[in-house]
Amino acid sequence: MENGFRSRERKSYRVMRMAYDFTIAILLLGMSVIMLFADKLGIEQLAGKDNEFFRYFFGGLCLLYGGFRAYRGFQRD
After folding, report:
1. Residue scoring higher pLDDT (72 or 52)
2. CA-based end-to-end distance of the chain
3. How far apart are CA 12 and CA 35, in angstroms?
4. Half-sphere exposure of 66 toward its Cβ, with a 13 Å CA cutoff?
5. What torsion do the CA atoms of 67, 68, 69, 74 make, to the nearest 10 degrees?
6. Which of these, 40, 49, 50, 55, is most buried using a 10 Å CB contact count?
7. Which pLDDT does position 22 carry in this prediction?
8. Whole-prediction pTM
9. Distance of alpha carbon 31 from alpha carbon 37, whole angstroms
10. Residue 75, phi then psi, degrees to nearest 5
């Protein structure tokens, strides 16, 4: 009986972690799209020339980390 409980507990933890990883990946990838394509999307607050380096740098970081979180969500233990 103890073994069955532990098995269900591990499975529920894996499902929760996978859902968390996918949620964070979607948020980060969405943020990277907004940051990288602010000019084309017409977002005036981000499209200024004074913060262009920061916008591309932060968008690239969000893209990399969001990709990592999506990979981690797809990965099976």
Report:
1. 72
2. 23
3. 35
4. 17
5. 90
6. 55
7. 94
8. 0.81
9. 10
10. -65, 140
